[in-house]
Amino acid sequence: MFFGRREIEEEFFYTSAAVLSWALLSIYDIKKGGRVKQSWLVILMALASGLVAGGPGAVLVGAWAFREEALARRWPRKSTITNGSADMKSEK
What we know:
- The chain has about 90 residues and is mainly α.
- It has one domain (about 5-70).
- It has helices at about 5-30, 40-55, 55-70.
- Helix 1 packs parallel to helix 3 (about 55-70) and helix 2 packs across helix 3.
């Protein structure tokens, strides 16, 4: 089965939409958890430029790497003990 130009354009559109949806939901999830400090404008510009420069595969790889980097960073834990009887050391 051979694909024409129209079918290839449709496939690119649907693949791009699926990848962008996944990337935005994934970044929203880690942004909601406080792991990402970048603004939505910066994130959207990075996704759009990645889509134009490299296509949906490059956006998928880039968003996955960004997500994994944000999740792998260690954040200091905040102590829930307020009376001072136990010393909680934050991880370094």
